[in-house]
Amino acid sequence: QVQLVESGGGLVQPGGSLRLSCAASGNIFSIIFMGWYRQAPGKQRELVAAITTSKINYADSVKGRFTISTNNANAVWLQMNSLKPEDSAVYYCTFRGREAGSINTRDYWGQGTQVTVSS
Fold this sequence. Notes:
Blueprint: E1 3-7, E2 10-12, E3 18-25, E4 28-39, E5 46-52, E6 56-58, E7 66-70, E8 75-80, E9 89-99, E10 106-109, E11 113-117
């Protein structure tokens, strides 16, 4: 069974940096989407950054500060620079692909990692 495991969250001062990591355990194939979402208290979950087979997208609020990258196999990272208090949220990674032995494509989600930007 495929599981996504995240790491790298924590407390950082405004202007600081963090690097989030997400790795899939188990065999996942035909990944067509990898992304990072975040959810702050009282707010809806929002897409922060995503990689598809043809392009990379960022939310306007993080363009120029965050960078998403992948090994094109089973891991994705989110480098976050010049962090602001409004970036504080629980960050979730997600893959869209299929497990070995399955013909169905589905979404997989990590457990979430807390990012807090505060002085």
